[in-house]
TrEMBL record:
GO biological process: carbon fixation; oxaloacetate metabolic process; tricarboxylic acid cycle
Protein function: Forms oxaloacetate, a four-carbon dicarboxylic acid source for the tricarboxylic acid cycle.
Subunit structure: Homotetramer.
EC number: 4.1.1.31
Family: Belongs to the PEPCase type 1 family.
Molecular function terms, GO-annotated: magnesium ion binding; phosphoenolpyruvate carboxylase activity
Entry GO CC: cytosol
Swiss-Prot/TrEMBL keywords: Carbon dioxide fixation, Lyase, Magnesium, Pyruvate
Name of this chain's protein: Phosphoenolpyruvate carboxylase
SUPFAM superfamilies: Phosphoenolpyruvate/pyruvate domain
Length: 908
């Protein structure tokens, strides 16, 4: 039985902090329900919790099932709310305790991995790196976490705010608080939980792009930006040259720019995203300038100032006679007014603290803003006031260099198929007679290269285009205007989904030429970086060939510029859905090495953009560890990584956590970049190649070759209900079909996690080992000698531990075709059990995660919260599939979906 100690494998109690936090918040929830809904309602929740505690390891909970079977639809909604709320509160309790453990772990000696950039630099200095060499390292660095939307995100901003306040109050608690203070905090926690109970947990309507932008910026404003400020202040003081540090850490976003399969993303959302981001960073700049103005009441009666400062101050329009001898204040007042003018231009609003409209000239570019700040710094330094500069002024400059007026660089993404259709229509409407879609690859590439060799446009303002083409052109025109308004750095890259050929790279260049972001001619140039995204196993294998074809073109060098760096995005999600966990990870790693080799051979740097998700099957796991597991020679001081959906709140939800993760990521990039590139061991390569190929074959045999599997997936997981619910802002599939090939990778992973299979995180490994004929000894050698394989095993073990085959079997029972359903499930369960057996044999463990007790406790705590929601979801799915179409059943299912997602946290 599952008792309150939350066993996993061998019985192991949770840590005291986690248990105490979870118990306190759970008790307060019951208390709030009793206060607001009455003791009978609280009694029903308590009864359900007691029944849930008697679930067996096989997923049997007859008392709970009996209770749920007798629920009215209203009661089902009520209990779904209660369990979903409990799941959220359990997460908060664990996170608060986890932050304490992280703080303790960060201070432990003997860990070879540098957890901060300052520590990583200390290691390099100990190895003999000079300050000049380190400055070059920093100048070449480009570390960019990229925030993306989540197609299964359902949380509301108001709920995020409640969670943040509960978390804050929990961190205030200490073991030996005075009784009155302890009681006050408990009462405030009760009030927050009661308010949470009376707040709609999740959206009944589909989330919009505007909602996604607003939700993400809430976290950026409250935690990510303050964390970046802290880090730049520390770095400037401890590792910067003369207090200056290169803008090595930046933030990126897809919110409002990722239109691949998203009908709601267009030129208007691009404008909205950038203006919303601009407001956040300009308000911060204004606040910092205002604080500097208050501090720098330095009079020329006591110290000289530079001529440049006097010239800057003379442009201010301050009528006060009291500041005639305070040029620093006058200069800062001018800077503030010009920031206000920038805000008026870009957002239509004043900056924070502005009291009136300004008629001064706005800064044309962030560099001009930085130049004015530099004048103040240099004047202070030149006139004996170097120590008066302080960290705040240098930090303001560092952040301004990293964030500009746009805060986060916004990527544009579109599918190559859309580009093809758009190019085809442009040629058709131009009267050229060219039927682009009928051309083969060689003819397409030749035509596109010719189109880039001159300035003539394909687009005519007097021609009417189809809806799709008109939308594409309007979005690109909006991007061109954004570059004019914010500068080139506001657009991170143009990502080409489904890239497979050279023409896929050339097509967006021709389209961007129509709006002035690419200039044609003998030496064409581009304002934007073009980044092909290689997603499937086949595309990852062919990627190096496509890159070579591109770099062999003379036009590639002028388009890439004087210091050529080619960005390439690697897809973890679709490659996983295409070929399974092992083949996907191997394909990404091998593709990264081959791409880096081709780029180096052609004299071009490479920047890899890792399209990771939150789950193991989609490349999830700690970002720093993922960087350190990258093949040597592929990081090169530059990396971009997606941070998606629910993982944004988990990794950046509060300032200390955001700071730790950003600092650890920067440190990992430095460490990984310094690793020597050695020739791979032929035995390792041979074993991994055999394992990946065999795993691919085993995975494909089930998912794509078994004719009954598609129906099994749609009936044994809640994918059908997920598609029908208002979850996320984009469609779950690229087409209207039920084909797995057309389903987006995130709903694919999400569905398996809801039903507790976690199949994308482990399926194919065991059959791959058996097909490849690898012994335990060979696998142990691989794990000991090959960081990539050790990381793969560690993440797979987590996915295996998170799965629950007993509960999964209950979902299989929903399938109408029980003959095939049971046959397929037995195949899946056999693979699961064998994968766990092999993983434990490799490291000599006795139960999953017994070498990582805190992670084991975390998984167990999640199961304790989520298991009852699974049982309730099963009851509700049976009702709905049995013909019950009442709105409250739909709502209850949505609540269980969201509650399970919240509890597991890495669902997609």
């Amino acid at each position: 039985m599952r008792d309150s100690a939350l066993s996993l494998g061998a019985s192991r109690p949770t840590s005291r902090d986690v248990r105490q936090n979870a118990n306190l918040l759970g008790d307060l929830l019951i208390e709030a329900i009793g206060y607001l809904e009455g003791e009978e309602a609280a009694g029903l929740v308590a009864k359900a919790r007691k029944a849930a505690a008697h679930e067996t390891d096989e997923g049997e909970a007859p008392g709970l099932d009996h209770l749920f079977e007798g629920l009215s639809n209203d009661q089902a909604v009520f209990l779904a709310r209660a369990f979903a709320s409990h799941s959220l509160l359990a997460n908060i309790g664990e996170d608060v305790a986890g932050r304490r453990r992280h703080a303790e772990a960060d201070a432990r000696p003997g860990d070879e991995r540098a957890r901060t950039l300052v520590d990583a630099v200390a290691v390099l200095k100990a190895q003999g790196k000079t300050d000049a060499e380190l400055a070059k390292v920093f100048a070449a660095m480009n570390v960019v976490p990229v925030l993306t939307a989540h197609p299964t995100e359902v949380r509301r901003r108001s709920m995020v705010d409640r969670e943040t306040e509960i978390s804050r109050l929990m961190t205030l608690r200490r073991h030996h608080l005075p009784a009155d203070l302890e009681a006050d905090i408990r009462e405030r926690l009760f009030r927050e939980i009661a308010l949470m109970w009376r707040t709609r947990l999740y959206r009944p309507e589909r989330i919009t792009v505007k909602d996604e932008i607003r939700n993400a910026l809430s976290i950026v404003r409250t935690s990510i930006l303050p964390a970046m400020v802290d880090l730049y202040e520390e770095w400037s003081g401890k590792i910067g040259s003369h207090g200056h540090i290169a803008p090595l850490l930046k933030m990126g976003s897809w919110l409002g720019g990722d239109r691949d399969g998203h009908p709601g993303v267009n030129g208007d959302t691009l404008k909205l995203a950038l203006s919303s981001q601009s407001r956040v960073i300009l308000d911060w700049y204004a606040g910092e300038v205002r604080k500097l103005w208050s501090n720098l009441a330095v009079s020329t009666a006591y110290t000289p100032v530079s001529d440049e400062l006097l010239a800057l101050a003379s442009q201010a329009k301050d009528p006060s006679v009291h500041r005639l001898d305070e040029p620093y204040r006058l200069a800062l007042e001018l800077i503030f007014d010009r920031l206000t003018a920038v805000s008026q231009k870009l957002t239509g609003q004043w900056v924070a603290y502005a009291t009136s409209r300004t008629d001064v000239e706005p800064y044309a570019h962030p560099d001009a803003f930085v130049a004015d700040l530099q004048i103040i710094i240099e004047s202070l330094e030149a006139n004996g006031g170097e120590r008066l500069v302080g960290a705040s002024l240098r930090t303001l400059v560092a952040v301004a260099r990293a964030c500009g007026f746009h805060l986060m660089s916004l990527d544009l993404r579109q599918n190559a198929d859309v580009h093809e259709r758009t190019i085809h229509e442009l040629y058709q409407r131009s009267g050229s007679g060219v039927r682009y879609l009928d051309l083969d690859e060689e003819a397409r590439s030749k035509l596109l290269i010719e189109e880039l060799s001159h300035q003539r446009p394909l687009v005519s303002p007097f021609t009417a285009y189809g809806e799709e083409t008109a939308k594409e052109l309007a979005t690109m025109e909006a991007a061109a205007q954004a570059v004019r308004d914010y500068g080139h750095a506001c657009i991170g890259a143009y990502i080409i989904s489904k890239s497979a050929t050279l023409s896929d790279i050339l097509e967006p260049l021709v389209l961007l030429k129509q709006v002035g972001l690419v200039w044609g001619g003998a030496a064409p140039r581009s304002s934007l970086k073009i980044a092909p995204l290689f997603e499937t196993i086949e595309d990852l294998e062919n990627g190096p060939r496509v890159l070579r074809q591109w770099l062999e073109l003379p036009i590639s060098r002028t388009i890439l510029g004087d210091r050529p760096v080619q960005e390439i995005m690697l897809g973890y999600s679709d490659s996983n859905k295409d070929g399974g966990y092992v083949a996907s990870r191997r394909g990404v790693a091998r593709g990264a090495s081959a791409l880096a080799f081709e780029a180096d051979r052609m004299g071009v740097g490479i920047q890899l953009f890792h399209g990771r998700g939150g789950s193991v099957g989609r490349g999830g796991g700690p970002a720093a560890e993922a960087v350190l597991a990258q093949p040597a020679g592929t990081v090169q001081g530059r990396i971009r990584m997606t941070e998606q959906g629910e993982m944004i709140a988990r990794r950046f939800g509060d300032q200390p956590t955001a700071r730790r993760n950003l600092d650890g990521l920067a440190a990992a990039v430095v460490q990984s970049s310094q690793r020597p590139v050695n020739r791979p061991d032929p035995k390792v390569e041979s074993a991994m190649t055999a394992l990946a190929q065999s795993s691919f074959e085993g995975y494909r045999a089930l998912v794509y070759d078994d004719p009954a599997f598609e129906d099994f997936f749609w009936s044994a997981t809640p994918i059908g209900e997920i598609v029908g619910l208002n979850i996320g802002s984009r469609p779950a599939s690229r087409t209207a079909s039920r084909k797995i090939e057309d389903l987006r990778a995130i709903p694919w992973v999400f569905s398996w996690s809801q039903a507790r299979f976690m199949l994308p995180g482990w399926y194919g490994f065991a059959s791959g080992v058996e097909r490849a004929g690898l012994s335990t000894g060979q696998l142990q050698d691989l794990a000991g000698d090959f960081d990539f394989f050790a990381s793969l095993l560690s993440n797979m073990e987590l996915a295996l531990a998170q799965s629950h085959m007993g509960i999964a079997a209950r979902y299989v029972a929903l399938s109408p075709d029980q003959t095939n359903a049971q046959r397929i499930f037995e195949t899946i369960k056999r693979e699961h059990d064998k994968a766990a057996e092999i993983a434990l044999a490799i490291r000599g463990g006795s139960s999953l995660l017994d070498n990582q007790p805190e992670l084991a406790e975390s998984v167990a705590l999640a199961g304790h919260s989520v298991d009852p929601l699974n049982h309730l979801q099963l009851e509700l799915l049976a009702r709905r599939r049995g013909g019950e179409q009442a709105e409250d059943v739909r709502l209850a299912i949505q609540l269980t979906v969201a509650g399970i997602a919240a509890g597991l946290r890495n669902t997609g």
